[in-house]
Amino acid sequence: MFVPGYLYLYKSGKLLKRIEAANALLKECRLCPRKCKVNRVENALGICKVGRLPKVCSYHPHFGEEPPLVGIHGSGTIFITSCNLRCVFCQNYEISHLGEGREISIERFAKMMNELQDLGCHNINFVTPSHVTPQILEALPFAIKEGLKTPLVYNTGGYDAVDTLKLLEGVFDIYMPDFKFSDSNVAATLCMAGDYPQRTMEAIKEMHRQVGDLITDERGIAQRGLIVRHLVMPNGLAGTRKVMRFLAQEVSPNTYVNIMDQYRPCGSAHKYQEINRSITLKEYEEAVEIAKEEGIYRLCR
Question: What's the mean pLDDT when you consider all of the chain?
């Protein structure tokens, strides 16, 4: 029987040490590559605009995620308010940029996890968790005491700091990062993070070191491992070939990859001519072929 890693950390007492270390990062916030260095313990706000307590927009079983996460009863998604990346075309613009959601207590955060588990969800899926990792860790003991035993999913834009990810080893059994762009100039324009490609490659390598390739049970439901998302952008701006070559050669050719076709102009995308349209079927099909050419064969259908 599969047992989530965080239960072992909790029983050993190591989880409490992780909580202390993560909370220390909030005092001069260095959780993500932005390194805003504001004191979030005192509710100072950096780029993510979240202080000491987490903010949540919504939580519910989600049936639109990857099949290994959805399974039969859905993925238990918790949509965290705001984001440390803030892409101009974000499809959740109201949440990531406009701050839709409300501040909640750590205890309420924990109860959300248990409520989703009680609904039968196969995992607890934190959407854009990079800026609230200390709060997730802090909520876990409360949730565990109430019976939490479901795998946790770290569903991120990919802009994560390796030092923070190391604090999460054994906590998250499933990592699901985006790899949005392989070109630093594109990243600088569309998410104000020219170092995005390099930081994301470092993060994905660390995630894979921790959990390895995706493992599913006999029903095809994810238990542990890495899932990478890659959104096809208009005019080849995502740099698909470099992304797939990196995954195949520097991570694993057995990486489970979802090449996504749902790009459409959202948020402020209308201000950028090169992304002010949906992708074509040809662009999507070319991206899938590129993945296969580079050695990625485990593609989400």
Answer: 97
How much is the pLDDT for 167? 98
Residue 301 confidence (pLDDT): 78
Q: Within a domain: residue 299?
A: no
For 283-301, b where at least 16 C-beta lie within 10 A, e where not — what string?
A: bbebbbebbeebebeeeee
β-strand pairing of 75-80 with 55-62 = antiparallel
Cβ 147 vs Cβ 179: under 8 Å: no
Range of the domain at 210: 5-293
Point out the residues of the chain with pLDDT beneath 50.
none
Residue 300 lies in a domain: no
Q: How many domains does the chain have?
A: 1
Look up tokens 């440390």; give the residue.
84
Q: Please give the Cα distance from 233 to 296 (Å, whole number).
A: 19
Element (H, E) at 248: none
pLDDT at 265: 96
CATH, residue 14: 3.20.20.70
Closest CA to 135 of 46, 45, 52: 52
Say if pTM beats, i.e. exceeds, 0.85.
yes
What is the reported pLDDT for 71?
96
User: What six digits make up the tokens of 295?
Assistant: 């050695």
The predicted structure's pLDDT at residue 1 = 80
Residue 125: strand pairing partners:
77, 153
CB 34 within 8 A of CB 47: yes
Distance CA 206, CA 97 (A): 28
Q: Give the Å distances, CA to CA, from 284 to 32, 156, 279, 280.
A: 31, 22, 7, 7
Q: Tokens 């990478």, residue? A: 228
CA distance 35 to 30: 4
